[in-house]
Amino acid sequence: MSKTLQGWSRRRFLGAAGGAAGLLILNDARSARSYRANEKLRVAAVGIGGMGAWNLAHFAGENVEFLGRAMLITPSSQPVMTGEDIVALCDVDERPTDRLVPGKRNPASETFARYPRAKRYRDYRVMLEEMDDQIDAVVVSTPDHLHAPISLAAMRRGKHVYCEKPGAHSVAEGRLMAEVAAEKGVATQLGTQIHASENYRRVIELLRSGAIGTVEECHIWPRGAGVEPTDRPTDTPPVPEGFHWDLFLGATKERPYHPVYSRGCGGNWQRWWDFGCGNLGNMAGHFFNLAFWALDLRHPLSVEAEGPRPHPETTPAQLHVRYRFPARGAQPPVTLTWTHGSQPPEIFARNTFPDWAWGVFRGSEGMLLVNYDRWMLWPESKFARFVPPAPSIPPSIGMTLSQSAEWMAAYRSLPADRRVAEVGHRLEWVNACKTGSPTACHFGYSSRIMEAIHLGAVAYRAGTRLDWDAANLRVTNAPHANALLARTYRPGWGM
């Protein structure tokens, strides 16, 4: 077992897991100061290009003219900010737009320009040190390998944290994030915004009502394949002026700069194990969220993965992962699978499901097909006269808050429920920072999803089934796999 994992005792695990027991459990925000009516939250953001710019537009209540499916932002010619105060911005890429690769989405340079009053940084550690008493909350929208180091540094200073998914870059990091959030009593939220949707609530009500009987399996197939693995580049081009490579690496072990690692330089960090987790890390946070919520999943008993021969540097284009979970109260054991790539899992291959369905719950009496915006009972003929149960799960508190957001109309390209989810999920966190009200995807809950994602990656890279001892954070049947549960950090970036 690695030195990182040796620090985890059964007592510490159970303390962290206790906060994860229920859906809407939020530790009271002991570190939160009192807010006067209409007082604004002082927000700092780390990672402000791409998804970071999208997040900031929400938290600032910015009257952008269009927020499309590709999450592109068109600023208003007369910008108005009706949301929170953006007091600090931090990004490792300070290059002007004309020096970036064409097509870069919402570059950091444009975000810096849209918030001229915010203090500008390139190193989040310096930002937190210099502005400690001027920051209430931190938004983390960086590549995956920086999610936990930044979130932990902020929470340890008593800051509330909103972090993009997956939220951690190893099994151990997810556990640690849950523990520190509980210890500090801060409001946290993972960026799995569809959790706030009404459609997800209707799906869960169907399952709880017994519409398809006892649920035995859940299968997820987002269809899109990854990129074929490639070796680490051997050439060492110069680091572009204004791009701070050492800060991009952060806690990750050192390697020479190359543009293939950064989207702003024309590459994609997500497909490299040191920085991301491929399609599994990119999208499973959204899809697993529904399964974990609906089936009350916690920690799997075993995890198996199949795919092409593991590459030491990059993630696979095709992957199939199978999780087996124990019984939960009256619910029997259940299997959850994840598949990405063009080859469908067996249940999709056997049935002529509509193309929009990325998920299927299989029960003893039928199946339930799902995506973000709709559901369908299957086979259709069997359920032709089915009457859904009356709604019983309360809407997200963000739903009410989002209705008053003046810029909701910016989501012209999205269904109404998705508009509410995008806005409401973020406002739910803002409200929690100020009042101590619940967030649905706090780190106590979402760390379980982080753990499942990374256990899938560990099973694939280790080339073996994992028998998982969740209480002691270890693989019992394949000791060599334990080395992949945590990662090594560079000096000065310790966890």
Short description:
By secondary structure, this protein is of the alpha/beta class.
Give an overview in words.
- It is built from 14 helices and 17 strands.
- With 495 residues, it is α/β, with parallel strands linked by helices.
- It has a domain at 15-195 and 397-444: 3-Layer(aba) Sandwich (Rossmann fold), CATH 3.40.50.
- The strands form three sheets. It has a nine-stranded mixed sheet, covered by helices on one side. Strands 5-4-1-6-7-8 form a six-stranded parallel sheet, sandwiched between helices. Strands 2-3 form a two-stranded antiparallel ribbon.
- Strand 4 (85-90), helix 4 and strand 5 form a beta-alpha-beta unit.
- The two termini are 17 Å apart.
- 49% of the residues are buried.
Total count of helical runs of at least 4 residues: 14
The oligomeric state is: single chain
* Biggest β-sheet: strands ordered side by side in the sheet: 15-14-13-9-12-11-10-16-17
- The helix content, as a percent range, equals 25-40%
CATH class of the domain at 15-195 and 397-444: Alpha Beta
Q: Strand share of the residues?
A: 5-15%
Termini separation: 17 Å
Radius of gyration: 22 Å
Outline the biggest β-sheet.
Answer: 9 strands, mixed
CATH homology superfamily name of the domain at 15-195 and 397-444: NAD(P)-binding Rossmann-like Domain
